[in-house]
Amino acid sequence: MDIRFQVDSAPVLGPALVLFAAGTVIRVRRGVWDKRRGLLRLAAAVHVAAVLSLTVFPLNVTWGEYANQAPWIGQINFVPLLTADITMVPNVIMMVPAGFLLPLLFRNATSASRATLMTAAASLSVEAAQLLSYIVLNNGRSVDVNDLLANTLGGLAGYALVTLALRVPALRGSLLAAALPRSAASRADRRRTATADGTQDAPIAGPVVRP
Asked: Does residue 192 carry a pLDDT above 90?
C-alpha cells in the first residue's frame, strides 16, 4: 500500500487563527481583555502560527513503498557549529519576536537567562515535533542542533531589544499598556514605581494566570 499526500499550513493554521481572532474580538468587546492586550495576544498567536508554518508544515505524509527507510537517528545532527553557515541567520531572525514578546506575556521571563531558556525550550519542542513527524509520517525533516542554537540566539536578541525599548520613553508607555498584568515587564514596572514612591511592592497573590 502506497500512501502519499501533503498537509499544508493554511487549512490548519488559518482557521485556528481566525477562531482565535474572533475570540479576541469578543473578549475585547465584553471588556474581559483590554484592546492593546488583546492585540498583543493576537500578535503572539500570529508569530506562533508563522513559526509552525516555517518549521513543521507542510506535512508530507508518506507510507508504503516510497517511504523514507533511513533510520530516524540519522536525521539528527548532534555536533554544533560543524555545518554552521549563513543559513542559520533566518533561524535567528525567526525567534527574535518570541524573545521580544516573552517579558510582555509571561511572568517568568524576568531576566535574559530565563528568556533564553524559555526560547530554547520552545525551539527544542519544534525540533522534537520535526523528529516525530519524520518517525510517524516519514516527513523528511532533519533535526539540527545548530537550529536550536540559532533560535535561542534569536530569542536572546529579542529580549535585548524589548529591554532597550522599555527604556525609551516614547515606546515604554505603549509596551507597558499592552503587557499582561502579571507579566515580567508589568511586575518590574510596578517595582520601579514603588521604589520611586518610597513604598514596598506588595506580593501578588492568587494563582498564575496564563495568557
From this structure: no
